[in-house]
Amino acid sequence: xxxxxxxxxxxxxxxxxxxxxxxxxxxxxxxxxxxxxxxxxxxxxxxxxxxxxxxxxxxxxxxxxxxxxxxxxxxxxxxxxxxxxxxxxxxxxxxxxxxxxxxxxxxxxxxxxxxxxxxxxxxxxxxxxxxxxxxxxxxxxxxxxxxxxxxxxxxxxxxxxxxxxxxxxxxxxxxxxxxxxxxxxxxxxxxxxxxxxxxxxxxxxxxxxxxxxxxxxxxxxxxxxxxxxxxxxxxxxxxxxxxxxxxxxxxxxxxxxxxxxxxxxxxxxxxxxxxxxxxxxxxxxxxxxxxxxxxxxxxxxxxxxxxxxxxxxxxxxxxxxxxxxxxxxxxxxxxxxxxxxxxxxxxxxxxxxxxxxxxxxxxxxxxxxxxxxxxxxxxxxxxxxxxxxxxxxxxxxxxxxxxxxxxxxxxxxxxxxxxx
Length: 420
Known about the structure:
single chain; alpha/beta; Rossmann fold; seven-stranded parallel sheet; 19 helices; 14 strands; globular
C-alpha cells in the first residue's frame, strides 16, 4: 500500500498547489501564498549565505501553532545559544504576523513541497534539530531530515482514531510519523493510538499553549487607547471572530440594548472583511487604526481591531470573551488566551477536536452558543451578575495554572536525546 499511498499523496499535493495558483487572482490568501513563493528560494539562499552556524528549525502551519511552540523556542534559545532559530510558515497570516518576531533569527515561507525543495532547504538551513508543531506534515521534508540523520520532534501532537494514520490504507502516512525522532503528545488518547502503529518514541507532556498564555499574562503592557475606549464599562471581546459571532453580537446589541463595550478582533483583517463588520455595526464602530489622541471614543460602542498581533494583549481588558470559529469542525480558535486572564467564555458547538474547550465547558467556565437565545442569555448573565463573573474568573485562572508545565517536560527529554 505504501507505493499507492505515495502516488496518491503526490497527486493530492500537486493538485492542491495547482488549485492555489489557479484561484490566486480571485482569493486574497491564495494570492499572498503564491506571491510569497516567487523568488523564495533565492531569498532564503541569499540570507542564509551570511551565516555559517547551524540552526534550530521550527515549521508551523500558522500563527496558532507558532504561539503553541514559542515557549519551547525560548527554552531552546537558552539551552543552545550557539544555534540560530529559523521558522517557516505555510499560512500567509502566520508569516505576516511573525515576520519580525524577536525570538526568530529568520522567518520564511515554506517552499512548496517537492523532493528537490526539501533536500535543498535542509542543506541551506543546516538544522541541528527540527520541530513540527501539532501537524502540517510534509513527506519529503520529513524524509530529507531522516536521510540526513537530523533529529526532528513533533510538539503538542493530538491524534484521533478516524485519521488516516490509523486506518488499513494509512501505511504511507504512518511512515511520516515514524520519521519523527520523538513525539510529544497533548493527551493519553494520542499516545495510545500511536502505540497501535508501533510508535514507541513518545510521551504525554500536555499542551504547551498553557505555558504560553501564562507568559502572555505576565509580560504584556498596555495597548494605547483601549482603556480610554473601555472607560468604566464592561467589555466583551470577540476573538478571531467570523460572521457568525459578529451577527450574534450585533443582534444582541440592538435587541437587548446592551450597555457595554465591544471589541471585535476578526480572524482576517483585509479591508473587505473590516468593511463587512462596519456594515453590521453601522454607526456604532471605529477601526483601531483610525484612533488618535483627538478621537471622541465616547461616541463609539464597538472597536474593530484591524491589525495583526493585538488580540492576545487585548484580552486583559475583557470582562468576557466570545471565541471565534466554533461553528465548523476544526475551526475553533485559541480559547486559552482569554481563559488565562480569567473571564467567562462562549463559543460555537463544534469542539470535539478541542479537549481544552470541552473541559472549559465541563467546568462551567465556557458556554456553548447554538442560537441567538443562547447568546442573549449568556451575555445578559455576564453583564448583570457580578458574582458569576468573579466566580468564573477564579475558576478560569486556576484551570490554566493547573495545566502548565509541558515545556519543562519537553525540554528535559530533548536535552536527553540530543546528548545521547
